[in-house]
Amino acid sequence: MGNKNKDVVYMLECKDGTLYTGYTNNLERRIAMHENGKGAKYTRGRGPFRLVYCQSFSTKEEAMHEEYRIKQLSRKQKDKLIKSFTEGHDGK
Questions:
Q1: Is this model's pTM higher than 0.90 or not?
Q2: Are strands 50-57 and 19-24 parallel, antiparallel or unpaired?
C-alpha cells in the first residue's frame, strides 16, 4: 500500500501495439481509468493495456520531467527502455 501514492511515470502497451506514456500519483487507479475509457483521450478504445514500464520518483517535478523525456524518445529507444526495465524485474 505504501507504493500507491508515489509520483510514477508509466508506459502502457495498447492492444494495437502502440505505447502510451503517462504520469500519476496512483498507478492502480490510473490504469483502471484507462481500462474504463476515462483515461487519456489517446487510450480510449485501445485497451486492454499491458503495463510495460513504471518508475517511481520522489517528487512530482522529477516524474513529470522524466515523462517529458520519455515522450521525446523514438519507438526504438522506448523499446530499449522497456527491455531494460523488464529484464531488471524478471531477474534475467
A1: no
A2: unpaired
